[in-house]
Amino acid sequence: MAASETANQKMFSIIMATYNCGQKVETTLQSIFSQNKELFELIVLDGASTDDTLDYIKNYESDLTLISEKDDGVYYAFNKGIDLATGKYIYFIGAGDCLKPNILEQIREFLPQENPGFVYGNCYFVKNKVYNGKEFTSTLFIRDNLCQQGIFYHRTLFDIVGKYDLRYKIFADWFFNLKCFMHEGVTKRYIDFVIADYEEGGISAEINRDPVFVKEFPLFVKKHFGIYNYFLCKAFLKEPYIFNFIYFRKYSLLFWYLIYNYSFPKYLTSFAKSYVPGYKYLKEVVRNKN
Length: 290
What we know:
12 helices; alpha/beta; Spore Coat Polysaccharide Biosynthesis Protein SpsA, Chain A; 9-stranded mixed sheet; globular
């Protein structure tokens, strides 16, 4: 980590990774610099953009730390930003996302001052026009992740839990967040504030683009949460839309997962007809799988 905590330490280190973001990066910068400047430092890690991204960033150059060089992806950049950060809490934001007005001032009193803290709130998903946020438990991470733009990490967390695992190109934050929640020495707190507008999309839009995560995350879940939750996790990562359709209608998820992946004999589907709501949907899934 960077320098030790001092009386002049900023409350927040805001870290932003950019690459060929164009004009939308300016909207994000404007939302950041509309906050109380006494509360934060801004570190921008640019992956050697070839468009006009750097032109927009350099308009604010005197108020931020900028490093522009080729890197190995967003989590590589985030880890580099963590090493440079001097604030008490670390916050990550993407180009196109926007902090809510005066939000840093509003939430500062809810942040633990001493114990390693993991504090998270809500985000507004701009594309789908929905508010996303709720209080989490460790087991919820089996099928969901927190929106990163709603999280404030005490800087010591990265000493305790480690930094982002660079083997996971898309979902390193998912794994990291679960490990934070599992750690008994980490204080977890949900605050019912909308922290930011989240543009959506970006690198996290497709699960199948991170095959190492898809392979290893369920094994981690199996080790710590048991075989049933392992099946839950595998089902979600394989077909998240089908999983949500089944799970949130309180069907037997394990039964559906076995049907979908192993094509049980047709008589099993016939047997299910009398007992499982949505039989026609189940039959269609099996037919498509075959």
